[in-house]
Amino acid sequence: MQRAACGGLAALVEEAQAALAPRLEPIVQHLVFALGMYQRKSQRSLFEALGTLANCMGSVMAEPSIAALLLPPLLAKWQVRVLHSPRGPGAV
């Protein structure tokens, strides 16, 4: 269900694009919440949806309010993955 929701969101983002700009902050808030809840399998779909959102929204994603919401949890998730990587902390 989570992967289907992410796929649906990505399709909506591709279709609506600029029309979503006024609603971007709550969308990102929900995606950040999902980032903390989804397990590894669903996180891949979530990352794809985030990538689609970034590609379609462009520079709007760089607004300080959006970056402040999105970057800390993404960096924290990346840090955990790097530390627990079978190749060690130096591997990316």
Structure description:
The chain has 92 residues and is mainly alpha-helical. It has one domain. It contains four helices and no strands. The longest helix has 20 residues, at 64-83. The radius of gyration is 14 Å and the shape is globular. The model has no long low-confidence stretch (mean pLDDT 87).
Helicity range of the residues? over 70%
SS element count, helices: 4
Q: Average pLDDT across residues?
A: 87
Strand content: under 5%
Structural class: mainly alpha
Low-pLDDT stretches: none
Coarse morphology: globular
What composes the largest sheet? none
- N/C terminus separation: 29 Å
Compressed to H and E, one letter per element, the order equals HHHH
| Multimerization state | single chain
CA gyration radius, whole angstroms: 14 Å
SSE layout and pairing:
Elements: H1 2-16, H2 24-37, H3 40-57, H4 64-83
Helix pairs in contact: 1-3, 2-4
Provide tags for this entry.
single chain, 92 residues, mainly alpha, 4 helices
Summarize the structure.
This protein is mostly helical and 92 residues long. The chain has helices spanning 2-16, 24-37, 40-57, 64-83. The mean pLDDT is 87.
